[in-house]
Amino acid sequence: MNYISLIEELKKRGSVPGLDAIEGLLEELGHPEDNLKIVHIAGTNGKGSIFAYLSSILIAAGFKVGRYISPTISCYEERFQINGEYITKDKLARLYNIVEEAMKREEEKTGLKPTLFEVETAISFLYFKEEKVDYALIEVGMGGRMDATNVIRHPELTVISSISYDHQAFLGDTLEEIAWQKAGIIKESCPVVLSENSDEVCKVIEQEATKKKVKCIEIKPTDYEVLSETPYGSTFLWKEQRYETKLPGRHQVSNAVTALAASEYLFRKDYEKNNARKDIDKKLDEMNVKSAQQGGIIRTCWPGRLEVLKKEPLFYRDGAHNPDGAKKLAAFLQKYFTNKKIIYIMGVLKDKEYKKMLRYLMPMAKEVYVFKPKNERGLSAQILADTIKEVADVSVTIESDVNAAVFRALDTAKPDDVLVACGSLSFMEEMEDIL
């Protein structure tokens, strides 16, 4: 069975919270995760952006960095990256064969059947161990406490990004309950970097850090100063150093500062153990670190997050897929484009709070093109269109798929209009090149 066929079979197993199956699988594989220096991140929004920044900084400093990402935008192999290069199909096929044999042994012993996400997690650990990465950046799939990635026992650092409402059926109905689930990745062995969050979220994370006897490095709005913002990026000051990011939106400045704080800790810890760095003059080493941080931030690209696909008409692609993401997207559009015609291209998943998302997004909409994502969780385009009509008086057109919606919107748009494809990350891999 090739790995594409195996992936399709594993998809049928759905999502099963808990660690028993992944623990058993990793036991069969010899626990490759124990041989990695892992930075582990949980949160509702911003996880990918923070790790895009952190990866870019570490690569700029000369480190070999592995990233495990889900979902992806360009292709399946994008899930497993080293220094931005995707795994080859041949290597992935070989690793899937190894894991498939381990799965069979586990099932014979315990009857447990790992899910696709658990298998992908195991593959990422195997791949990064084989390639001897300096750091492995691992994103939680959902929650934290019972997520498959939480088999990591001794991370170098944990990070908690922005926390808001999402996956309530699994994580709880209040921000405190959701934050408690996310805080489950905090381990006694290392501190946690906490992005800007509400007071109730910060309190829960602080309590867990205190319980685990580790430092909580909190990012606050007073830690940095935004110097300028444009629809194409921002400049800001952090610790008296000037930085520029090409990722638009105020929230991306906050994400960048979270990554900078994480890198500061990792650089400091590396200095304590790295004799080669100690041979360098202290001031020169500090200059090298600052250069890596500045260069890493400005070179960071992160597809699907207020990504500019086209400039005339201006076309953004954004993965806003929950109310908090929609709120941030709406704030960005209101800041820069109140005098422009906003055209949305939308597909959403039926288990998301799409009505709340629409309440944030629709006040600026002039036209909306909707479709059903090619996903078993995809919401009917008709239901989405009807819901839009409930919250706004706007023209809605139903299309067969994302590409039909994109080309129809481009065909009708004028050069000074603003197009925004949003609602989910799940359909972005289907999007054809529009340039």
From TrEMBL:
SUPFAM superfamilies reported in the protein's UniProt record: MurD-like peptide ligases, catalytic domain, MurD-like peptide ligases, peptide-binding domain
InterPro entries hit by this protein: Folylpolyglutamate_synth (IPR001645), Folylpolyglutamate_synth_CS (IPR018109), Mur-like_cat_sf (IPR036565), Mur_ligase_C (IPR004101), Mur_ligase_C_dom_sf (IPR036615), Mur_ligase_cen (IPR013221)
The Mur ligase central domain, residue ranges: 41-262
Top EC class, one word: ligase
Gene3D superfamilies: Mur ligase, C-terminal domain, Mur-like, catalytic domain
Coiled-coil intervals, chain numbering: none
Keyword Ligase appears in the UniProt entry: yes
Record field: transmembrane: none
Ranges of residues in domain Mur ligase C-terminal: 304-424
Catalytically driven reaction(s): (6S)-5,6,7,8-tetrahydrofolyl-(gamma-L-Glu)(n) + L-glutamate + ATP = (6S)-5,6,7,8-tetrahydrofolyl-(gamma-L-Glu)(n+1) + ADP + phosphate + H(+)
Keywords linked to the UniProt accession: ATP-binding, Ligase, Magnesium, Metal-binding, Nucleotide-binding
EC number: 6.3.2.17
Family: Belongs to the folylpolyglutamate synthase family.
Protein's recorded name: tetrahydrofolate synthase
Biological source species: Anaerobutyricum soehngenii
